[in-house]
Amino acid sequence: MPKQTSPPALPRFILASASARRRDLLAQIGLTPDLVDPADIDETVLKGESPRVHVARLAGEKAAAVAERHSNALVLAADTVVACGRRILPKAETPEQARDCLRLLSGRRHVVLSAICLVLPSGGATDRTVRARTVETAVRFKRLEAGELETYIKLGEWRGKAGGYAIQGRAATFVAWINGSYSNVVGLPLFETHALLKSAGLATSNPHAPQS
């Protein structure tokens, strides 16, 4: 009787982000990272840098920084920004920042851009394979009344959120129209992320088995 062999073990899967939202979104498609190892990089916008270039650069730098620490692992990094034209809105940390963001977004169309970057295991090679995508979703807010804006500020769910809002929370009532990936606005475009991980052999329905 021929000896049965086990399929080759998959590399460790590392998420280069401390975002609980991204972990929850990965769990939604059946994935739990073996390790969460956030990158600590300077996220300052460079002079003249467009939102699309900025978000792609940060995702790539995060992935590269963490990949240096884990040569034999799949490393996934992501970055998300909210932009009005070429203006990148901050991750609101104070009520004043959140209020300014929401007043700017009130009654207007804006875009949410997420870049994802996947670094494959080295396999002994000097240069590692990198796969990346950038996803854009257009969102339009209704015109916000002063009272509902202040009620939202008091809730505090804006804290640490790009553009001062979380679409998966109470701010869903602000969204009059959306064109594109909803999960992208939450923080991780699942269709594109699944495609990248599948192309690297990671089965999102069963993270411990390779794709056939």
Question: What labels would you give this structure?
Answer:
212 residues; alpha/beta; Maf protein; 7-stranded mixed beta sheet; 6 helices; 29% helix; 23% strand; elongated; disordered C terminus
What's this model, at a glance?
With 212 residues, the protein is an alpha/beta fold.
Protein described:
By secondary structure, this protein is of the alpha/beta class. The chain is about 30% helix and about 25% strand. Strands 1, 2, 3, 4, 5, 6 and 7 form a seven-stranded mixed sheet that branches. It is elongated and about 55 Å long.
- In total, the number of domains comes to 1
CATH class: Alpha Beta
- The average pLDDT is 90
**Helix-strand sequence:** EHEHEEHEEHEHH
CATH architecture annotation: Alpha-Beta Complex
N-end to C-end Cα span: 24 Å
Taken from the alpha-carbon principal axes, the silhouette is elongated
Instruction: Specify the biggest β-sheet.
Output: 7 strands, mixed
Helix tally equals: 6
Task: List segments where confidence is low: pLDDT < 50 over at least 5 consecutive residues.
Answer: 205-212
Number of DSSP-assigned strands: 7
CATH topology (fold) name: Maf protein
* Proportion of strand residues: 15-25%
The helix fraction, in percent, is: 25-40%
Class derived from helix and strand content: alpha/beta
